[in-house]
Inverse folding.
């Protein structure tokens, strides 16, 4: 009986410790922070990218490949970027369409290989967009941020009467340790 009591006490302590650690981690990742939606000018962005079809959580290797290719061409990429065309809530994960790549510094635009088969090039024009900035702490931020940010962006856009089916853009600025979630404004 004494063994069972001791075991249950230790189990209870372990459970409380795990809950506290989980809450601290969520706080650290920004899970309890206030998310502010703004309408502000963003862009233009020159991007080198690769089209990607499939589960959005599996874009990492594609993003890495674009960065490695650009680095091999002595091109400075200032941030990662994902343009997500398909809403994962309305399509099967295997059919999600996106463009994954890097934001290229304007001074390096002449170095881009316009005939490359490893990436494509396009410019996202400047304009007033719906924007949320979220802190980047570690790799778990990539999972925490969309869960927290997208419902708030969607509610904001719905309240304003904006089209909810516009592509979503995520910019991963590792220098500034921030992620930007961007949606075009259209009615």
């Amino acid at each position: 009986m004494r063994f069972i009591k001791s075991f249950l006490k230790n189990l209870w302590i372990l459970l409380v410790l795990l809950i506290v650690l989980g809450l601290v981690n969520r706080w650290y990742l920004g899970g309890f922070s206030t998310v502010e939606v703004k309408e502000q000018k963003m862009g233009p962005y020159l991007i080198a990218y690769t089209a990607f079809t499939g589960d959005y959580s599996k874009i990492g290797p594609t993003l890495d490949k674009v960065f490695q290719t650009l680095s091999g061409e002595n091109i400075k990429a200032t941030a990662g970027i994902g343009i997500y065309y398909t809403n994962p809530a309305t399509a099967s994960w295997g059919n999600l369409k996106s463009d994954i790549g890097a934001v290229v510094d304007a001074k390096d635009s002449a170095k881009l290989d316009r005939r490359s088969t490893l990436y494509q090039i396009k410019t996202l024009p400047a304009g007033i967009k719906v924007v949320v900035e979220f802190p980047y702490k570690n790799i778990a931020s990539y999972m925490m941020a969309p869960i927290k940010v997208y419902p708030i962006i969607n509610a904001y856009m719905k309240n304003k009467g904006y089209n909810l089916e516009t592509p979503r853009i995520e910019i991963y600025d590792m220098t500034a340790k921030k992620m930007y979630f961007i949606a075009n404004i259209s009615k």
About this structure: Residues 39 and 48 are 26 Å apart (CA to CA). The chain has a mean pLDDT of 85. The beta strands are 37-42, 45-53, 77-84, 97-104, 120-124, 127-135, 168-173, 178-184. The chain has two domains: 1-32, 37-184.
